């Protein structure tokens, strides 16, 4: 039996979703998966980045993280996404990656990938659930198997109770308002478990 291959794909301007992705990476490895932690390429104008010291600092601190490519999407049996809310939707950087997978979709190579998603926003009702379900809409088109956490573990209640995927509220200084580490790790392990069953490696 080969190891289940998981791609943990995140976009982050100021580090929140990078942290969620790192917790997911740790848990997915613990669950026995072969894991690639991958960032969504930044495509914002340098002038915009320069105006936000936290954004610039985060970009520099994550220069070593490989950028996700279509080869990674083809390679993985399952994906865990972590993306911040942008007006209730995924950032344009993430949409670029999704749209860039059109060729893979056309060849049927995204069918039966197992997918689960996480998010963050500045307000507790700022669009986290909407962002996750908007991402899942694309996954439905891909023929992916969307694996939500539902209420499959007590950690989900402690994290704010988002059944679509773990989400966190983060203030302007980047401080998380809920303790979501356990929920992220549960979601990652559950996604590996479901991917194991679907991929049948
Ligand atoms: C263009 C833009 C739009 C945003 N829209 C929302 C929003 O609709 N609701 C909200 O609560 N936060 C919103 N935010 C705040 C981000 O969701 C927040 O900065 C992000 O979750 C932090 O994650 P990161 O540290 O991984 O970048 C927005 C931020 C930007 C830059």
From TrEMBL:
Q: What is its EC number?
A: 1.6.5.2
Oxidoreductase: is it a keyword of this entry? yes
Residues in Flavodoxin-like domain copies: 6-192
Q: Which UniProt keywords apply?
A: Oxidoreductase
Enzyme class at the top of the EC tree: oxidoreductase
GO terms of molecular function = NAD(P)H dehydrogenase (quinone) activity
User: Which protein family is it in?
Assistant: Belongs to the WrbA family.
Protein name in UniProt: NAD(P)H:quinone oxidoreductase type IV
Give the organism, scientific name: Pontibacillus salicampi
Q: What is the lineage of its organism?
A: Bacteria, Bacillati, Bacillota, Bacilli, Bacillales
Gene encoding the protein = wrbA
């Amino acid at each position: 039996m080969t190891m289940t291959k998981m791609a943990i794909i995140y976009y982050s301007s100021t580090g929140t979703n990078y942290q969620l992705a790192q917790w997911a990476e740790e848990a997915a490895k613990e669950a026995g998966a072969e894991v690639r932690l991958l960032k969504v390429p930044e495509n914002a104008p340098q002038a915009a980045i320069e105006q936000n010291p936290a954004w610039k600092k985060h970009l520099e601190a994550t220069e070593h993280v490989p950028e996700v490519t279509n080869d990674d999407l083809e390679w993985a049996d399952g994906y865990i996404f972590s993306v911040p809310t942008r007006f209730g939707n995924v950032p344009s950087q993430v949409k670029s990656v999704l749209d860039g997978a059109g060729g893979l979709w056309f060849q049927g190579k995204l069918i039966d990938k197992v997918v689960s998603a996480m998010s963050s926003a500045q307000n507790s009702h700022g669009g986290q659930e909407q962002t996750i379900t908007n991402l899942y809409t694309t996954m439905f088109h891909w023929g992916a198997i969307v694996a939500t956490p539902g209420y499959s573990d007590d950690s989900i209640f402690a994290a704010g109770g988002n059944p679509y995927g773990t989400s966190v509220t983060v203030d302007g200084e980047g401080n998380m308002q809920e303790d979501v580490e356990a929920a992220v790790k549960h979601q990652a392990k559950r996604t590996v478990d479901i991917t194991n069953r679907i991929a049948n490696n």
